[in-house]
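Much of what follows relies on a compact textual record of a protein's fold. An example makes this concrete, so a full record is given next.
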Amino acid sequence: VCFEKMRVEWPSIAMVYRKIVNDVLGRMDLKYDSMLSMPYAITKKAIEDIGYDILQNPILSQVTLIEKGWRLQSSSAITNTSLNNMPANKTSFYKKGLTKL
């Protein structure tokens, strides 16, 4: 076994803070995901419930949504791919189906 090639990839401090916020809120299922990570989807009803101004602070928005009982979940159906780096195979954007309510 070549130990020189084995590296431990440590998360950035921003990732650690996201994980801590999710753990404190009791949402360990979100892992490192948060509203700081673009893109995300949010309904107009949820925005109206928490207020438009609160969206200026993504962490406060996430905390408020969780406290008000809105459903937050991780999904790989949304990818963060730049339009400048479009793949030749357009179906590669779709990893799995969207979740059902």
Notes: The chain has a mean pLDDT of 77. Residues 71 and 101 are 10 Å apart (CA to CA). The radius of gyration is 17 Å.
